[in-house]
Specification:
Length: about 450
């Protein structure tokens, strides 16, 4: 009951902010930069005053006059830095990594942590377990960032004609997208969840009954949906598809656009920066949500990557979540900034579609594509797991794990095997081995998912 009360207040808070944040998408360049500058100063001030870890690093920074150009003086931070200094990075003394971990290992559905916070587990591609804490405002803005670019399909705020969005995805209580959808699904914008692990005919049946305008899904399901439409089994008229979590292949985009005359959009997001981008109305590429973050494209030697070239990594600064300041936080995704203003008229910086992470999909011999979520969700839900590496085998996987304490690895094997079985892998066989450390590749990068060479 307490959850429901807090949630209702939270939905109202989010709904109060929503119109302004939608309006921001049509702002001029000057207005976007002014908002970004003010939000940056406010974050730096809060971090310097309330975070023990950041206060030392921000010694050379005067938050009252700082600009985007000044932040290059601040050393970047990694996920390792965050996890090793978690308790002194966060700005609320009550929040401790130990408690956040124990909270996450218990929850079965969305839940609040320390009154009105949310804790989530990262599923990113860096190879190290990350726990991220969001305050009430940060969590609401996370949700707004994700949906505001789709407002015309959702008829947001219009109670009489608002349409539910369908999300064909994995439901994992400790992951950002699932948790956000649970916290904020309401009459303002309703999200109907269809588990991606259902057989395709069941997914088709659900879609036929809901008939959504907007469908959120992993790109790898698009071709199956198109095939069902071609056969006349799927009778829907969607206006747009919103893909996340995986690269969107041109073939999948083309066939989906042709099948329904619908827009197919792909956005980039991260547990550290929910809704860091929003879709371009022209289809390909995305815009950076610069009113709520700073993203720097960076070469492997730490120098800035010029527009028109692909970066090796990015540094993100999350401006909307003060409880866990992430300032110049490194993520190893490749970004390519566009030099000129986008033809769609938006004054937000545009980047090409982010194509990283394509190596993470496993394809088994009966053409079953398995999303890495099926592995990392159960692995990260176990709070003893620090790092892991999954090597695909003929009908399953060999998984090395670094763990902090004894754990029921057999039980974990069974959970992952049942995930694989539901996805369509026949007689799945998963073997988990405890190791002291995971060996990195020559480049020093940790590759967590190693596909079987066909
Ligand atoms: Zn655009």
């Amino acid at each position: 009951m307490e959850y429901e009360k807090t949630r209702t207040r939270h939905v109202e808070y989010m709904a109060g902010l929503l119109p302004e944040y939608i309006d921001r998408l049509s702002w001029s360049r000057a207005k976007i930069e002014e908002e970004q500058r003010n939000a940056l100063r406010s974050l730096l001030n809060h971090a310097k005053t309330n975070s023990e870890w950041h206060s030392k690093r921000l010694d050379n920074i005067d938050p009252s006059t700082a600009t985007k150009e000044d932040i290059v003086k601040i050393p970047p931070m990694s996920k390792k830095d965050l996890m090793e200094n978690w308790d002194s990075v966060v700005t609320d003394k009550r929040a401790e990594l130990r408690n956040a971990n124990s909270h996450l290992s218990k929850i079965k559905s969305d839940a609040y942590f320390l009154d009105d916070y949310h804790a989530i587990i990262s599923g990113g591609s860096s190879g190290v377990r990350g726990i991220f804490l969001y305050d009430q405002h940060g969590w609401a803005v996370s949700y707004i960032n994700l949906i505001r670019g789709f407002s015309k399909y959702l008829k947001l705020g219009d109670k009489t004609s608002a349409k539910p969005m369908v999300s064909i995805s994995a439901f994992v209580a400790a992951h950002a997208t699932s948790a956000l959808a649970q916290t904020f699904s309401s009459s303002l914008v309703e999200i109907r969840h269809i588990p991606v692990i259902l057989p395709i005919d069941d997914i088709v049946k659900e879609l036929n009954s809901i008939k959504p305008d907007l469908i959120h899904c992993f790109p790898n399901i698009l071709s199956s949906l198109c095939e069902k439409a071609r056969l006349g089994e799927l009778a829907i008229d969607p206006k747009a598809f919103w893909c996340t979590s995986e690269p969107l292949l041109p073939g999948d985009r083309n066939i989906t656009e042709k099948t329904w005359n619908a827009s197919v959009m792909n956005t980039w997001s991260a547990s550290e920066l929910n809704g860091g981008t929003f879709p371009c109305s022209f289809g390909e590429g995305v815009h950076i949500s610069e009113d709520v973050c700073v993203i720097e494209a960076i070469n492997s030697d730490g120098s800035p990557t010029p527009a028109g070239s692909k970066s090796d990594k990015i540094y993100i600064t999350n401006l909307f979540n003060h409880v866990m300041p992430l300032i110049r936080y490194e993520i190893t995704d490749e970004f390519e900034f566009q030099a000129n203003q986008c033809k769609c008229g938006s004054h937000y910086q545009k980047i090409k579609d982010v194509c990283g992470r394509s190596d993470d999909l496993f394809v088994y011999n009966n053409n079953v594509i398995v999303h890495p979520l099926n592995f990392y969700s159960p692995l990260f839900q176990a709070s003893v797991v620090l790092e892991f590496m999954v090597c695909q085998t003929k009908n399953g996987a060999q998984i090395d794990v670094v763990i902090t304490d004894d754990y029921d690895l057999k039980g974990l094997e069974k959970t992952i095997e049942s995930n694989l079985l539901r996805t369509g892998v026949l007689n799945p066989d998963v073997c988990i081995k405890r190791v002291d450390k995971i060996n990195r590749s020559d480049t020093g990068k940790l590759k967590r998912f190693i596909p079987l060479k066909q």
